[in-house]
Input
Amino acid sequence: MADGGAIVNTSSNSASAAGLTPGYAAYGSMKGGLNVLTRYMAKEFSPRGIRVNAVAPGPTRTRLGDDGFSRHPEVIPALAARTALGRIGEPEDVGAVIAALLSEESRWVTAQIIDVSGGFNL
Output
């Protein structure tokens, strides 16, 4: 990567204290490790001017879990009810934050884990 670049890792709010859901221990632990790696990468790459951050999405309509939201749409209302903004996320919601973190406007942001969940589990 060229000096002055930017990296955005994709974590999960499953790694946050508010995101604990039974059955997600391995997934949440792996994403927690990615959060630590993000901070180390930010520190280690900073002499080259490379910024490293992570986004931590909440429930987002993707094909994760073998396209689980399409196969089990009945889970969506319960997840939306646990989200302050009243819906599950869309890929564009997360993509917009990633694009912002990669842009020059975020040139002073590094080593951050950004919750992109619409207020899931508030």
About this structure: The chain has a mean pLDDT of 95.
